[in-house]
Structures are given as structure tokens and as C-alpha cells.
Amino acid sequence: MFNMKSVFLRALLALSLAIGVAPAFAGPTYKVSFDTSTYSGPGFLDLQFLSGGFAGLSFANVSNLSGDFGTAVLDNATGDLASGFRIANDSGFNAVYLQLQLGGMFSFDVSFDGADLSDGITFSASLLDENEINLFGDLPLVIIDLSPGVPPVLGPSPGAEVAVVPEPSDALLMLTGLALLGFTLRRRSLR
Questions:
Q1: ∠ CA 76-59-123 to the nearest 5 degrees?
Q2: Are 110 and 65 in contact (CB under 8 A)?
Q3: What residues make up the domain containing 128?
Q4: How many domains does the chain have?
Q5: 187 inside domain
Q6: Each residue of 62-86: pLDDT tens digit?
Q7: 50 versus 78: which is more confidently predicted?
Q8: C-alpha separations of 106 from 38, 45, 65, 109, 179 in Å
Q9: Does residue 179 fall inside a structural domain?
Q10: Is the residue at 47 inside a domain?
Q11: HSE-up (13 A, CA, CB side) for residue 155
């Protein structure tokens, strides 16, 4: 016998699963924060997004910038300080170069989307002084490497922290699934 309510519930379950699949193809969001209180004067934050030879078109999305930032120079990137930056990996050099005033706390979020993110994509952030000399020698502030067999976050420099931000869509998908499961079990017990 055809039951319209059953068909509707199954369609609702399929829709909630389809909505939850899109975030699964995106990389995680990382919160990068760093303290520059031991430095003073003008400086620069150099954000670079590079890919290996096998990676397809992908993007690094830098958002929620906090700190005393100045003007930005974009190379194969779009956006601004207020809305964030989207850096593509489809040319040789992909970067956002931000002026800043050293001496305080800075932070930003970075997430990735696009092609298969496990094909050798690297995001790095370097902190430079006013003469464009790296404050940590040859080491960047942080490297996020999405290559197979490599830990995703490599060595934040002293004073820097990197944390993975939980995705709200994951919690929403789990709650939707639990609600539908509870509804189904309740419905079966009433029969």
C-alpha cells in the first residue's frame, strides 16, 4: 500500500543527507592566532597558497581577520579586510600581502575548498618586519599542508597557535539524523 507520509519522511532524510554532503568535500577551518607583543613597528603578514603539480583548482578562504591590519596587496586573490580574502591556486604565485602594526594580537580563519584537497596543497603565513625580513628566520609563522601522509598543521612558530574550528553543519547533520531516528522509533512503537 502506498503511504504518502512514509515517502515524505524518506525524501526528508535524503534531503538532509544531501545537504550534509557538501561540507564533507570542503577542508576543515583552521583558526590561526599569533601574539606580536614582543615586536614593535610596522610589519607584514604574507599569506601564500601553493599547490603541487597534481592539484586541480582550489581556494583558500581567509576570513575573520582581527588585529591592526593595514592595506593589502593581492596576487591571484580577491576580497578585502572586511569580507575576507579568497586565494586561488591556478597560477604560479598566489598570495595576500597585508601591512600590519606589530605589538598586539592577530588572528584569522582559513578554510579550503575546490579540487581534491589531498593532492598537495600548502597554505603558509609568514610574519615579516618593516624591511620584509622574516621574523622567524626561514620558518613561516604556520604551514597548513593538505598532502597525503603529512600532518595537516606543521609547526606554528613561537607565539602562534592553530586550532581546528568545529563545523556547525556537522552538528546540524547529526541532530537531524538523531531527530529522524527518534521519530521513526517513536512511530514504530505506536503501531
A1: 85
A2: no
A3: 26-167
A4: 1
A5: no
A6: 999 999 999 999 998 999 999 999 9
A7: 78
A8: 13, 10, 8, 11, 40
A9: no
A10: yes
A11: 7
